[in-house]
Write a structure and sequence with these properties.
Jelly Rolls; 7-stranded antiparallel beta sheet; alpha+beta; 8-stranded antiparallel beta sheet
């Protein structure tokens, strides 16, 4: 019985040979169990630790149970087999759950590793994108700085353009005012000229009447003895014309004296003055001697006189400090007396860019008395100055303005030449060399004796604006110097040569 009981107790954990012959072999207790997806000593040990408590629990429950009637051995063995099968199924279920959990954890680790790799790749891509964005931002910042600098430059240019346009508008307004003043002056001058023409016509008729009377007197004097008057009736005088004085009255004599003393350029022609000066009436009781022929008025208060005695290349006078700013208008006026057969160079202004920025010169090859008025070589106009070749003092005034390119030439108060479209909108630049009496082929030099001026210059002055006819008339009569002259002969200096500075109270007294 004991053996049977002991055998029955052991049968709950050991397979019998007969049972193995009828059922598939099962792993012995303590043998390593192979589960799909699991392996290794650690997994076998875990399985063993689970099975041992189960077997011990079954054995203890069997011994501690109440005594029961003995059953057949095979029936007991069948129960044990069923219990073991159920235990095996439960164990397999637990093992499969463990294997499933292991596989799940293994897959989770794999996924975590793949996610880590993907995260690293994403981090690298983000870093690259961040570097690219930083580069783009730096380029954008550089471009914005350049754009700001360009914007500031454009703003400064716009401000400068606005200032230039405002200055031009002011100049145009001033030029318009000057043109209106010139038109008014020309209108007044036209009225004065018509009045002078009427006066000259009346005086010409008077001269003809007096010429007839003088011819009759000369015939009577030819037949009379010296110191006596020819007998006979007095010559018949022509009847007086309406509106004219009687030739027999003393008024013509007063008129002759007034005409000889009149210095205005609207006076009668020179042949009329010479005829008046060449006639002599017979002296009578209490009569006054006739005035000399050189008392036609005097021009004074003209300042210093520069004398250029010959055509030496050393005879040059420099006006300094030159033009203080760019000129958009110009007036050059002076008294001139020419001592040679051609005019030569009155004025020359040269810069490093162009040695003929402003020139008034006449060459031997030109028509005698003509002069080239040059502004920014090669542009020029030819001006007629033939009256200057008579060896007497004449007042010359050359005026130019860039507005419409207008220019005027005045000789002895008369407008001799005018024109337009000459260097319209041009600026004469500052910083050059201004020379009197020589033409410059380089700044301050390159003189040629064939282009030299021989004669005298007095009262020269330069303005940076266009003078009106009234101001030109004031200069020509020596009354006053218009305001705003930027250069005069007081600014002249020279080194070596034979140029002389002479102070004369009046031009007629200069040597």
């Amino acid at each position: 019985m004991k053996v049977a009981e002991g055998g029955g107790a052991r049968a709950g954990c050991v397979w019998r040979e007969g049972a193995r012959s009828r059922r598939p072999p099962r792993p012995a207790v303590g043998a390593p169990v192979r589960v799909p997806g699991m392996g290794g000593p650690r997994r076998t040990l875990s399985l063993f630790l689970i099975l041992v408590p189960v077997c011990l629990h079954g054995a203890l429950s069997h011994e501690a149970g109440p005594a029961a009637p003995r059953k057949p051995f095979f029936e007991r063995l069948r129960r044990l087999e069923e219990q073991f099968r159920r235990l095996q199924e439960v164990t397999l279920t637990h093992l499969r759950g463990l294997a499933g959990n292991y596989n799940l954890s293994y897959n989770v680790d794999t996924r975590f590793r793949s996610l880590a790799l993907e995260t690293q790749a994403v981090a690298l891509a983000v870093n690259r994108s961040q570097a690219t964005v930083q580069g783009d931002l730096s380029h954008l910042k550089t471009w914005m700085q350049k754009a700001q600098r360009r914007s500031r430059k454009l703003d400064s240019r716009l401000l400068a353009l606005d200032a230039a346009l405002s200055h031009r508008d002011r100049q145009l307004a001033q030029a318009g005012k000057e043109q209106e003043a010139q038109r008014d002056a020309l209108a007044g001058l036209g009225l004065t000229l018509r009045g002078l023409q009427d006066t000259v016509a009346r005086l010409t008729h008077l001269v003809q009447s007096q010429g007839t009377r003088l011819a009759a007197l000369e015939r009577r004097l030819q037949v009379a003895r010296p110191g006596t008057m020819a007998p006979g009736p007095p010559p018949t005088l022509p009847p007086a014309q309406p509106g004219l004085p009687n030739p027999g009255s003393p008024e013509p004599q007063m008129g002759r004296q007034a005409l000889r003393a009149q210095p205005e350029p609207g006076d009668p022609p020179p042949d009329f003055a010479s005829r008046l000066q060449g006639t002599r009436e017979p002296p009578g009781p209490g009569s006054r001697p006739a005035r000399p022929p050189d008392t036609q008025g005097e021009t004074c208060n003209v300042g210093p006189v520069l004398v250029f005695p010959n055509a030496s290349t050393q005879n040059a006078a420099f006006l300094s400090p030159g033009f203080p700013a760019a000129l958009r208008a110009l007036s050059v006026c002076s008294w001139v007396r020419v001592a040679s057969g051609h005019l030569g160079t009155l004025l020359s202004y040269a810069t490093e860019e162009n040695d003929n920025k402003l020139v008034l010169h006449g060459r031997d090859s030109l028509v005698p008395g003509s002069v080239h008025f040059v502004i920014g070589d090669p542009a020029f106009r030819e001006l007629p100055l033939q009256p200057l070749l008579d060896g007497r003092w004449h007042h010359v005034c050359v005026i130019w303005t860039s507005t419409l390119g207008r220019y005027w030439l005045h000789v002895d108060r008369r407008l001799v030449a005018t024109g337009s479209r000459f260097r319209e909108g041009y600026d004469i630049p500052p910083g050059g060399s201004l020379v009197l009496g020589q033409e410059q082929d380089s700044v301050g030099g390159g003189f040629d004796s064939s282009e030299a001026f021989v004669g005298s210059v007095a009262g020269l002055a330069i303005w940076d604006r266009a003078l009106v006819p009234g101001e030109v008339a004031s200069l020509a009569t020596g009354r006053e110097l218009p305001r705003g002259a930027i250069l005069t002969l007081d600014n002249a200096h020279w080194e070596g040569g034979f140029v002389q500075r002479v102070n004369c109270s009046c031009l007629e007294l200069c040597p």
